[in-house]
Amino acid sequence: MLGRVKCSPGRSLAPPLLAVLIAVAGCAPSDDSASVAVPAPKGEQARLCRALHGKLPDTVDGLKRRTADPVSDFTAVWGEPAVQLRCGVPEPDVLKPGNEHYNPLQDAAEINGVEWLFEKQDDGYRFTTVLRRANVEVTVPGKYAPEVDVLTDLASAVKKTVPVGVV
Asked: Which residues contact 130 (CB under 8 A, 6 or more apart)?
């Protein structure tokens, strides 16, 4: 059985409750940003990813570039829901012999001179460059099917800044 709650005369819960609501609202992301996990490339990979970031297009497949949250030279986003690019990510598990997800026959294709590995996700696809000095990962929500279309707009920047080679 619940007891009765008694408030002291002259004491209100409104100010503390209002303060909590303001604090929570202040933590909400703005409409112009999209949350994305930031990779942590080192050395040459970090340098290549910074160069790529400076050459990325303002639009991909007609989607306007937005601000990634947190802001980083290793990430970029376009549209809502966001197409996410992350540079300097580890090699995909499907390419690691001995990994439970290893698949030597995983789908891949060359698009405008850049080789991409295709991985189906619950909602869309994740594409990762292969045979480049830094791994570039692009996640595309199913809303933008055919998801591969965004890669045509990203290929030029990748070719110019991330040379062919093995990580």
From this structure: 95, 108, 115, 116, 117
> Which of the 8 DSSP states describes residue 116?
E
H-only helix segments in the chain: 14-27, 43-55, 149-161
Mutual angle of helices 149-161 and 43-55, in 10-degree steps: 120
pLDDT digits 0-9 by tens, 50-102:
999 999 999 999 999 999 999 999 999 999 999 999 999 999 999 999 999 99
Say what the alpha-carbon torsion angle 104, 136, 122, 152 is, to the nearest 10 degrees.
-100
Please give the structure tokens belonging to residue 68. Answer: 């990634």
Any idea which residue has 């909400």 for tokens? 28
Instruction: Give the containing element (helix H, strand E) for 65.
Output: strand 63-69
Measure the CA–CA gap between 57 and 164, rounded to whole angstroms: 21
What distance in Å separates the CA atoms of residue 70 and residue 72, rounded to the nearest whole number? Answer: 6
pTM above 0.90, yes or no: no
